Amino acid sequence: MVDTDDRSTPRDPATGAGWVDPPPRMGFFTDTSVCIGCKACEVACKEWNGVPTSGLDLLGMSYDNTGALTANSWRHVAFIEQPRPAAASEQTDTTTQFLGMPQSGPPGRTGTAEGRNDFRWLMMSDVCKHCTRAGCLDVCPTGALFRTEFGTVVVQEDICNGCGYCVSACPYGVIDRRVDDGRVWKCTLCYDRIGAGMTPACAQACPTESIQYGPLDELRERAAARVATLHERGVPEARLYGHDPSDGVGGDGAFFLLLDEPEVYGLPPDPQVPTHDLPKMWKRAGVAALAMAAGAVVAFLGGKR
Amino acid sequence: MSSQQPPVGERFRRSRQRRDAGLAVPPAEFSSYYGRPILKPPVWTWEIAAYLFTGGVAAGSSLLAAGGQLTGRPAMRRAGRVAALAAVTASAGLLVKDLGRPERFHHMLRVAKPTSPMSVGTWIVAAYGPAAGLAAIAEAAPLLPRRGPLGLVRRVLPPVGRVAGLAAAATAPALGTYTGVLLADTAVPSWHEAYPHLPVVFAGSALASGAGVGLIAVPPAQAGPARRMAVAGAALELYGAHQVESRLGLLSEPYRTGRAGQLLRAGRTLTAVGVAGAVLGGRSRVVAALSGAALLAASVATRFGVFRAGVASARDPRYTVLPQRERLARRRAAETP
User: Which of A130, A214, B68, B155 is placed for a possible disulfide with B77 were both Cys, Cβ 3.0 to 4.6 Å?
Assistant: First the structure.
């Protein structure tokens, strides 16, 4: 079905995909304000899902040597170093600056007070968003990508033929083709574990409950309360990302609490599912096809020789 | 040639642009994660750009062949049918080769999904390919013996070829334009925003390349329709390309700069040369053939240019962040009275 839902109507994606009486929609709430950048989520994900190594690559991007979500990294911890104190004023300075961390001693003990920088360290464990209106799922021409009963989006590796359309259709740049394998891979929200009533590996391993797993409705309430708490405590820059069912992808199954603009973390500020404009696109193609046929007809009828 | 310079008239138009006015002069500053792209650049390689061309040649050639069939121009019919079969065979090969798992190409035939332009395209090619193939094979009828079982085939083939040729021509416009939707229905910024114009560019490019086949293979005395088809195709292609290069604000930039800009400028020049040659010197066999070759080369350059512009727009986070920031700002402005 061509999805022409109004962007303001929330809907349950599992029901929309034909599941009868599905369990509640499950998802992740990743609260970056308590992330400590330990990368246990990255390791646990690789271990449980048997994801191949991405190789040793020193990127020079703070403590981030993963770089991005790829076919071989289904969780990615981003590290951003900013020259400002943790509880700064409302004026958001979004410049990213490498401060040469780690220093030879703990901050505050090295050098003089004047030489010290105020800085904050943002850490965020990124993951597939399991969109309500998923571009990858819409454009998959083989049916390899499907919507589970939990409302998540999963690739069937025995079906995928590596056409790569989903890679270009993802507004977050998540799904990716594995070079030596030819198929696409991404987070499954541990479909095998949650089907057995278990918690996904990354959330299970997270030592600070930065990654929270549960029914999406519950997580959204919890997230709203957490933002209110942070605002009370003088962190006005705390905001939710991907929680809103009226956004361009119908809301994310995995959403975030961020402490700066999304693009600072490498997230798109206003993602939109590409198929949103598909009916208009087919109309334009239809007009162009008619023009093409008309051009040929005129060419043959328009002159004697 | 300076690629940074906006085309003549651009500054005037910028002030008139309604929707994209804010995008035309982008703010210099934007945030990103270590300058990394937000989107994954397309994993498609040259095969897909080449397929855009061969698919267009097939579509244009089938229209040329059907016109020749219906207006009694056997040389044009034959050239169009043979070129269409060659081009659609190359297309299928290129499409399969670009897959990560080529041996699983038939998984495309498990489903028919209107939300996936690639699935729609699979079924268009599946309908068009056999028809184009049958029409081309029918051209071999005169080579068969007059007697025996093959003699029967010899008598049956021409009417079968006529039906198949018309069926191929009926699906050809879909084959020539769906590829515009294929590219536009992605998150690739400069492809997606170009959705109103890409099918027009591709329709024109397909017509012009079909005309090119006619100009090369058909004696000038019979090639009048090919010359007119070249004019019609070039007009559509140049109009569409101009829209893409000037109407998308910041997202037009990848179409004007870098290798994509060079390819699109080369395509425009070759189209102009090809049309001028066909119209002014088309009575000469040599000039007609050279003009046809120029039109085919123009189509190659245009397709690769459009392809590379999209890839460039996905690689640079500013083409993702700035237009989305603009969209957010517009929506917020509309929400707060």
Answer: B68
Q: Which of residues 69-128 of A touch B (CB under 8 A)?
A: 78, 80, 94-96
Angle (CA) A82-A83-A85 rounded to 5° is 95
- Amino acid letter for position A137: L
Please tell me the distance from the alpha carbon of residue B129 to that of residue B168, in angstroms, as a whole number: 8
ipTM: 0.90
What distance in Å separates the CA atoms of residue A8 and residue A17, rounded to the nearest whole number? 19
What is the CATH number assigned to the segment(s) B10-335?
1.20.1630.10
Cα distance between residue B188 and residue B167, in whole Å: 34
Q: Quick check: helix, strand or coil at residue B132?
A: helix
Instruction: Return the residue in B39, B171, B182, B332 with the most chain A beta carbons within 10 A, the one to mutate for interface testing.
Output: B39
Residues of B in contact with A159 (CB under 8 A): 107, 110
Between strands A254-258 and A26-31, the pairing is parallel
Could you tell me which residues come within 8 angstroms of residue B93 by beta carbon, excluding any fewer than 6 positions away?
none
A-interface mutation test, from B62, B185, B313, most A Cβ less than 10 A away:
B185
Residue A197 Cα, gap to closest chain B Cα (Å):
31
> Could you give the C-alpha distances from A195 to A12, A25, A74, A88, B137, in angstroms and in order?
18, 12, 19, 43, 54
Tally Cβ neighbours within 10 Å of residue A269: 22
User: Is residue B230 exposed (0-12), middle (13-18) or buried (19+ Cβ within 10 Å)?
Assistant: buried
Convert the pLDDT of each residue in A134-192 to its tens digit. Answer: 999 999 999 999 999 999 999 999 999 999 999 999 999 999 999 999 999 999 999 99
Q: Which of residues 120-149 of B touch A (CB under 8 A)?
A: 122
